[in-house]
């Protein structure tokens, strides 16, 4: 009887303990729900809803964003990513590639304003508003308060006005893209060196016409690997200032096409001899001979100097560029014999790597040399020059990878060559030459693939 009472007491004690645990868990859950809805933190959910109210969403692309019971967890909203551990919003990506897949409109979303409530997202490290049309509104100064941002893309958003220097407060930023905002004006870039972790910078179409020290500023970004400043009105660097720069050695990709750069740009680029892989300086004011410094860029794989006023021929230092895959010198006033250039390539391992060679729209003359050693060529454009003589099948006999061949608008003569070895050929232009005779029957198998 006594043992029975003891068991009953133990059972009662266990029931009371279980009840307290349940009540404690309920209190804990209620306390948690005061700040978190599902995984979503309430303060951050309200900040996102305020941000949505600043947008025009005609296609209802943000239908998952709402206050209804089934939409309480903002971590499930389109374009929003949260930490699995804390519930904090880490990423807000409303770019066209994320929400635009659900709309036929080019600008999937339109913006009336960027709500200042956005600064409540203090753990945000990725913000992408690419192709949200903000119709000439200004980038807000408070964007510089999102101190944990590592990735910021406001490209093609139609912002205008002065660019806020407060972005210099984003010292963790690694990726900054403000391109395709032609009405943004940066009076200076003095804030840029504060972004010491920056690796990717694209300010294409941003007006930098008055920023004369842009090259000095870029050299103060020790981690920068990718620089794109297309159509910015960039002035050429000041030589006297560049001579004393202790620049970083990280830049691998530099695209500065469609600016006002002169040959002083090559002095600046000489700081990056060992790191540059991809260099585009097309559509600038480059004149005179192609400088030797380019031939000392041992890692260079892609080089475009098209549509400038370069003359003469390539320097012998080009023989040192063993990794060159694409060379575009079109639209200049280069002259001389193509055979000289081919000899330079033949003296280096570049003959095994070169895939694209564009020498069109120059003043090159003479007969076509034997190109068979350029065995990796896929694109060869020699059109709009002054080449003469006969086209022989031996010129291209080993170019089995060649897909695009343009010899149009020259003075080539004779009959059509045997091109049956060009098994990959898809595009062929031979028009506006002095070719004669019929089309060889053997061309049938080649023509069947031509565009």
Automatic annotation (TrEMBL):
<dbReference type="Pfam" id="PF08263">
    <property type="entry name" value="LRRNT_2"/>
</dbReference>
<keyword id="KW-1003">Cell membrane</keyword>
<keyword id="KW-0812">Transmembrane</keyword>
<keyword id="KW-0433">Leucine-rich repeat</keyword>
<keyword id="KW-0677">Repeat</keyword>
<keyword id="KW-0675">Receptor</keyword>
<protein>
    <recommendedName>
        <fullName>Disease resistance family protein / LRR family protein</fullName>
    </recommendedName>
</protein>
<keyword id="KW-0325">Glycoprotein</keyword>
<feature type="domain" description="Disease resistance R13L4/SHOC-2-like LRR">
    <location>
        <begin position="103"/>
        <end position="181"/>
    </location>
</feature>
<dbReference type="Pfam" id="PF23598">
    <property type="entry name" value="LRR_14"/>
</dbReference>
<dbReference type="InterPro" id="IPR013210">
    <property type="entry name" value="LRR_N_plant-typ"/>
</dbReference>
<dbReference type="Pfam" id="PF13855">
    <property type="entry name" value="LRR_8"/>
</dbReference>
<dbReference type="InterPro" id="IPR055414">
    <property type="entry name" value="LRR_R13L4/SHOC2-like"/>
</dbReference>
<dbReference type="Pfam" id="PF00560">
    <property type="entry name" value="LRR_1"/>
</dbReference>
<dbReference type="InterPro" id="IPR032675">
    <property type="entry name" value="LRR_dom_sf"/>
</dbReference>
<dbReference type="InterPro" id="IPR046956">
    <property type="entry name" value="RLP23-like"/>
</dbReference>
<feature type="domain" description="Leucine-rich repeat-containing N-terminal plant-type">
    <location>
        <begin position="43"/>
        <end position="83"/>
    </location>
</feature>
<dbReference type="InterPro" id="IPR003591">
    <property type="entry name" value="Leu-rich_rpt_typical-subtyp"/>
</dbReference>
<keyword id="KW-0732">Signal</keyword>
<keyword id="KW-0472">Membrane</keyword>
<keyword id="KW-1133">Transmembrane helix</keyword>
<comment type="similarity">
    <text>Belongs to the RLP family.</text>
</comment>
<dbReference type="InterPro" id="IPR001611">
    <property type="entry name" value="Leu-rich_rpt"/>
</dbReference>
<dbReference type="GO" id="GO:0005886">
    <property type="term" value="C:plasma membrane"/>
</dbReference>
<feature type="signal peptide">
    <location>
        <begin position="1"/>
        <end position="24"/>
    </location>
</feature>
